[in-house]
Amino acid sequence: MNKKIGVYVCECGPNIPERIDIDKVIEELSSMGEVKTVKRYSLLCSNDGKKFLKEDIEKEELTHVVVAACSPKEHENTFMKVCEEAGMNPYLFQMVNIREQCAWMIPDKEEATSKAIKYIKAGVHRVLFHDPLKQKELEINVDVLVIGGGISGIEASLSLAGPNRKIHLVEKTDSLGGMAGKLSQILPHQGSKIKLVKEKIEQVENNENIHVYTSSDVKEVRGFLGNFEAVVKSNQENKEGIEEEIKVGAVVLATGFEMFDLKENPVYGYGEIENVVSALEFEEMIHSEKIELKNGKKPKSVALVHCAGRKEKGYCSKVCCLYTLKFAHYLKDNLPDVDVKELYMDLCLPHKQDQSYFDQAKEKGVEFIRMDEVEKIKKSGDKIEVEYRNNDKADKVSVDMVVIAPAMVPSQDTSHLAELLNLPLDKSGFFKELHEMLDPVATPMEGVYITGCALGPRNIPESMTQSHATSGKILSSLIPGRKVKPEVKVSEIKEDLCTGCQTCLSVCFYGAISYDPFKGVSVVNEAICRGCGSCVGSCPSGAIRSKHFTYYQLYQEVMEALR
Amino acid sequence: MKNQNVLVIGSGVAGMEASLILADAGMKVHLVEKDSLIGGQTIKFEEVYPNMECATCMLAPKQQEVLQHENITLYLLSQVKKTEGSAGEFKVQIEKKARYVSLINCIGCGACYDPCPVSLDNEFEQGMSQKKAIAVACPGALPNVPAIDADNCLRLNGKKKGCNACEQACGFGAIDFTEKDETINLEVGAIIVATGFDQFDVSGLAQFGYGKHPNVYTAMEFERLYAQNGPTEGKLTLREERPIKSAGIIHCIGRKEKGYCSGVCCMYSMKFAHFIKDKAPEAEIHEFHTDLCIPGKSHQRFYEELSKKIDFIRYEDVEVKGNNGNLEIIYTHSNGKRDSIKSDMVILSPAMIPSKGTKDLAKVLGISQDSMGFFSTQDQNLSPIDSEKEGIFIIGCAEGPKDIPDSVSQAEAAAGRILSLLQ
Q1: Domain architecture of chain B: domains with CATH
Q2: With helix as H, strand as E and coil as C, how does B295-346 read?
Q3: Per-residue model confidence (pLDDT) at position A476
């Protein structure tokens, strides 16, 4: 192909000509071999400017275009679009920043002009070696695999299921409901006496677009956004070991949490001392409406001990203060003479209604005692003593029953699933968000989302909100009849140079590279690669190149600038 | 819901996220913002906890996406004045104030600022710096196009007829004094309210000496003081430009008065200590706190790291007094001991309260406010983002105090709810 390059210098009003002699730029550039035309324009990004550019590209029958103007951050996309509209491949375009990097930086006009000329020449040299990259489009499957049948997984499934979208909901135990299903009541100030979980399970069972797999595990997940393949293995009695392969477009992990094992720290006396119970055991007591000591008597005094495992795990579990308040309310409402003491470190009541719930508990006579930490829980005659330390002073309370609120910890499956799906974990062992602030339910694997306590401790409304959030992300990216457009500027591996050392596999954040044991080389999955270039830098044999940022292109650009 | 148009009110981090997800799904989004720029409160922060990421850098790509998205129509300097109808068929009236600067022609070069003869307190900078009657709120504001303050522009308020200093300076013909306020009527299927929060006014609490002693700052003032694009370009100094040798940061200002914990102040107060240590490593810093509310999974580690470097004091009560130009923090420790500390600077961390226009907007939308003044939601368990009216969703701090990730989650959830209904 005969290369015909057009160079367009934007004046950006007075911004560029004030410091750069554009006539001189045109004169210098016109003498370059493949440059067919060099033109100036007052404001190329204006509608008139874009029209001029499009018509000129067509008139001059250009194959490549260089625009010297502002920062590519401002208008690279604008001009690539114009090139495409003019019938060119948009990747045969290069933008050169002569505003921020020349006109606005260098007070001396001669110096600024000579730097601008070098930059533009470098751009021309680079664009000659650009490849005409093509945007691919891939067919998609819009169905979704949801792993975990707790309240988060249930809510995500209900929100996602639709006439054109099937949901595969996989639960490892024999029934749906998860941890929330074990709770006696949701916090009264968050809506009392609702049979939330039961109602939701019925909705799932009655939804013909949700297929539930109970007593099942996900054995394998391969693929990328719009095209995942998963293997679900049944552990059900009559179907044990039967594997089913399903195809989906996205995966939602809703694997929840477990409770910190109180036996890990002997100070709590859990499992050793009678009438020292965990929060979940107390929930069961409320469920059966039987708050009783082992001897069948009603307790006259109860201590609610917060923050068990907080120090060990290194984080606050956010929900314990509130649910121990729920216990205190329940005790005061049902055993009017009971003496309730809450032993807390810091009261964490971060939602707008929480404080009044706390104030009400105080009004009912619940005693709040601050402590730095529990020193020992031990038996003393008929009573249990909780020894604690506050402001460096030792003190204790003596009660009939102790309820301990343990930290929430990642569920057992977390690390296994992380390995299966190539997902990172955070320091606490929960799944890590793609971006803690701005992308709280996404993961580095596009098309794999996480909701609820699999990401860290949170309450039921927050978990359900996140399930709707995953649904928002999926419903806006997997639309029936649409195709997905993967990244164009991806990495590619030269098989004859690759030694199969697999260094690139370890640096790829997105899990886009795999190893082909038959050929002995690494392979890039272009549908997953985001073109970050980490693998390019890591490859000891120089076998990987990043499309549109090849060594050769950069070399040509730099050499011309340094000439 | 047949109408595939959605109205989003407020262009902070929550409003932007909801708009982008819906727009990506092919919905037509009408995004209404009362200010001349987008980004809300988050863009005022230099860095956000716990990873100390630059908030402006973090949000800039989102802001650009909002500005360029073909399915998002942005109405700046605009407010919703009327709504009628119900889910699926809301009729909405928007009042859009004139900007007097063309968003199409202006390239944001800033040549018009200097010639303008009027200087004003810059509200975006909490009044800590001046701006001209034609200005952007801060460097890096998006869209990077100034607006003319019609109340203060000499030509528009009639004080100096024919002043055209900015018009003269503009090389792009972007100034248009003839632009008129507009009334826009829309029909939308759903409404998302993302009007954010304001800071509790601390000037009513005399014990903290705000307004009386110049070196008592509010949290938002301190955020701007630390910001590279703020009034001091990030130089941390006292008002009289003395370096900071000691600072006291007081948590829970207004908690008692408002009756709730704002959930984020402990962390941002600790972030402030980290900021000061960063720029004045020798400074002595005291955090005066009550209960530490640090529920994020990585927040406690941040606290543990910081507590090696600075003093945490659990207080029962606290007040700030002036003492010959210096400040004295007098407090009762949780162990009952009364004590005091001298400090160059005091930063007050006030409660988050509903944003100013909440009451009016609630009326316009026909929905109610809760006892704390935030928009009411139906049921905290089943639908924490549903207002009492079908088709109207409340997200982010308009629903109650929360951090950025929770706001983003709610935004994505509102989009999810709407898209799910349309399936």
Answers
A1: 5-97+181-196+355-422 (3.50.50.60), 99-179 (3.30.70), 201-352 (3.50.50.60)
A2: CCCCHHHHHHHHCCCCEEEEEEEEEEEEECCEEEEEEEECCCCEEEEEECEE
A3: 96
Q: CA A308, A314, A316 angle in degrees (round to 5)?
A: 60
Cis peptide before B61 (omega within 30 of 0): no
pLDDT of residue A380: 94
Nearest CA in chain A to B62: A438
CA distances to A37, A61, A63, A125, A557 from A2, in Å: 14, 11, 8, 15, 20
CATH architecture entry for A144-256+411-477: 3-Layer(bba) Sandwich (3.50)
The topology under which CATH files domain A5-133 is Rossmann fold (3.40.50)
Contacts of A43 in chain B (CB under 8 A): 107, 172
- For chain A, say whether B185 makes contact (Cβ under 8 Å): no
Task: Report CA torsion sign: A282, A288, A294, A300.
Answer: positive
Measured distance CA(B365)–CA(B412) in Å, rounded: 22
Six-digit token string for A400: 């009939």
Distance from the Cα of residue B361 to its chain's centroid:
18
- CA nearest neighbour of A408 among A137, A93, A221, A178: A178
Q: B129 is written with which tokens?
A: 């710096």
- Residue among A17, A216, A25 at smallest CA distance from A104: A17
Burial of A423 (0-12, 13-18, 19+ CB in 10 A): buried
How many whole angstroms separate alpha carbon A260 and alpha carbon A256?
A: 13
The three-state secondary structure class of B421 is helix
Tens-place pLDDT, residues A461-494: 999 999 999 999 999 999 999 999 999 999 999 9
pLDDT of residue B346: 97
Q: Which residues of A touch B370 (CB under 8 A)?
A: 352
The verdict on B88 touching A (C-beta cutoff 8 Å) is: no
Whether the per-residue pLDDT at B241 is higher than 90: the answer is no
Q: Which CATH number fits domain A262-407: 3.40.50.300, 3.50.50.60, 3.40.50.150, 3.40.50.970?
A: 3.50.50.60
Mean pLDDT of B195-214: 95
Question: Where do you find CATH 3.50.50.60 in chain A?
Answer: 144-256+411-477, 262-407
* Rounded Cα distance, B368 and B198, in Å: 19
The SS3 of residue B40 is coil
Instruction: Quick: pLDDT tens for B285-331.
Output: 999 999 999 998 999 999 999 999 999 999 999 999 997 778 999 99
Q: How many CB pairs under 8 A join A and B?
A: 207
Say if B397 is an interface residue toward chain A (CB within 8 Å): no
Chain B segment 306-335 residues within 8 A of A by beta carbon are 334-335
Report CB contact under 8 Å: A468, B50. no
Phi, psi of B82 (to 5 degrees): -150, 145
A462–B301: do the CB atoms touch at under 8 Å? no
Q: Decide if pLDDT at B415 tops 70.
A: yes
Asked if B380's CB is within 8 angstroms of A77's CB, the reply is: no
The domain made up of A491-547 has a fold known as Alpha-Beta Plaits (3.30.70)
Residue showing tokens 């009003």:
A13
Q: What is the helix, strand, coil percentage profile of chain B, to 5?
A: 25, 30, 45
pLDDT confidence bin for A107, thresholds 50/70/90: very high
CA angle B231, B234, B236 (to 5 degrees): 100
Q: What is the pLDDT of residues A309-337, one digit of tens each?
A: 999 999 999 999 999 999 999 999 999 89
Tell me the per-residue pLDDT of B137-173, one tens digit each, with 9 for 90 and over: 988 899 999 999 999 999 999 999 999 999 999 989 9
Burial category of A56 from C-beta neighbours within 10 Å (exposed 0-12, middle 13-18, buried 19 and up): middle
